[in-house]
Amino acid sequence: MASINKTQMTGSTYWKRESLEPRNLILFFIIAFGWSWTIWFGIINEWIPIPQDPNLSLIEFVKFLPIALLSPFGPTIAAFLMTFLTEGKAGVKQLWSRFWNRDLQKEWLMILILLQPAYFLVLRILGQAFGTPQPTIAWISRPLLIVESLVVNTIHGGLSEEFGWRGYALPRLQARFNAFWASLILGFSEGLWHYPLIVWPTDPRYGMSLIVLILWQTIATYFRTWIFNSTNGSILAAVLFHAVQNTAGIIVPANVFIISWLPHDPFVPPALIIVGIIFVLVILLVSSPREMITVLKRGEPEIEPV
After folding, report:
1. Does residue 45 have a pLDDT over 60?
2. Which of 304, 171, 166 lies closest to 242 in space, CA to CA?
3. What is the spatial distance between Cα 126 and Cα 101, in angstroms, rounded to a whole number?
4. Has this prediction a pTM greater than 0.70?
5. CA-CA distance, 165 to 222, in Å (whole number)?
6. What are the distances in angstroms from CA 243 to CA 83, 166, 239?
7. What residue ranges do the domains of the chain occupy?
């Protein structure tokens, strides 16, 4: 077990420690993939039976619910397990504290809430300009739709993944690589982790190209690296941003315009990827590819873990 002194364990820069051991990432990825893939492929191949009866009894529902809820928690489970094995209870406490640390600048709170909806707003405006009919905004008549989506995506997305991808993996990748390359590696890994969902007939992503899936996840990863690094390694910021990213299509629904001379993918059209890459390039310009940190307010005090 790696030894950590109290100096290393305190302060908001703990996540930047050079002593983080990238070699533990292999076991982290094995656990993260192994947990989720075992459940997902178990359901896909009917090794784990899914209740089909619409009049499902409460007992059957309760028996299946933990499997359904916990299936995407592979990254988070791997993060806490690996942290405990390598850093003990003190490391687990520190990892948890980076989520409960609520000293998040209001400027960054606004950015993580508005950035992805702004991305979809650009797509909607461009779609209108190219003559593509745009969907109605459903939440205007059903305001709770956004709340419901945020709650679901906070649990299945933010909490299930971000302790692992940003809380554990990204700092260790950045101990060896700069932020640009660390994000590229992590984006590929996140995309591959989602692979079972595109071969699952009942999932909305069924039939999606693996290449497009990885590319789309990599673009999202650059957004998340920037948010995470710029908020001093805040897992809370990463969780909230992940939830908003997954909800943005409901907040600002958009039909993306078609580029006739590019292959059309029904899940992630080329225009969606192109606009995403432009947003990533802007982020790299304002933060530098090496660090991907944008400082909005200087002189912030060190934040001690709770």
Report:
1. yes
2. 166
3. 38
4. yes
5. 12
6. 24, 14, 6
7. 6-287
